[in-house]
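Chain X:
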Amino acid sequence: MRMPTASYRGRARFPGLHNDSIGSLPALLIAVALAGGYCGAGSARAQDEFRLLDSPAATPAKIVIPPEGEPGEPLVISGTIYQPDGRTPAAGVTLYVFHTDAKGVYSPDQEEGKPPKPRLQGRVRTGADGRYEFRTIRPAAYPGGDTPAHIHAGVSGRGVRYWINDYWFADDPLITPKQRKRVDGPEGSGKVIVTLRRDDKGVWRGTRDITLKKAETTP
């Protein structure tokens, strides 16, 4: 199957916003990522909770993930996170994302067969309007594999903490017709295919809204 094309000549530049770096992925998060199929499978189970460092109130709703000059095609993903009713914006929710670089690797020192050590990762925290935006570069598929390029994500806050469906991209030739038909499952079931459009500055832009699950209550 043909690998997706990617431009390595471009350099990501997002002036006006600060890059967000949160250090190494917590060990327990990595363990759950493995259990949920994040090393190569591109999917996770909704019931798998994950550990995420509490996001301080100062965490912005808009971030730039890659460092200045990161190779790759600039990408902006934005959307609104809603409460379980699907209508009311959810404030104070942290969205954590991580992905490969333009060569399909998480980190230059990544060991084959080992848990991912994502270099490109970040978190946003919604305000009263529930809006979020992260600016990064288009990730590439794993080298030599047939898993479509994707962005892993999880949400926490308002009594919930779980993986949500991966971000996939509609123009990715690695997505099979069968996979395109199986994207309507609940959050955590696999993936959401996002349609990207390139603006006049060459930046890919896509939108994805997220509806939170109901928080579990203890009798």
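Chain Y:
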Amino acid sequence: MEEQQYKKTLACPKWLMPEAKAEWRRLAKRIKVADEDVMILAGYCQSYARWREAEEYITEHGFETENTSRILPYVSVAQTYLKLMGGFAKQLGIASETGVIMNEADE
């Protein structure tokens, strides 16, 4: 079995959203990422940024439209990105068996 190569420093992709870059910097200090998994980390961070953006919108505006009581699309967006984050977290080994994303204290 071939030994995985880990990057000592992870260069943050320039195309990530600012919030995704902040999450990248936070995680890059805490986890080992194999060379072939760098894009999985990028996907996780970008999904995190989009999820947070949707959640902030929902917090500010609510999750229903005022006139029709229809659920805003941001709810679906938040749910979608939360699921994506969970999948990426499992691939990176930063999710527990329950699907909860672990932090440094959990390890």
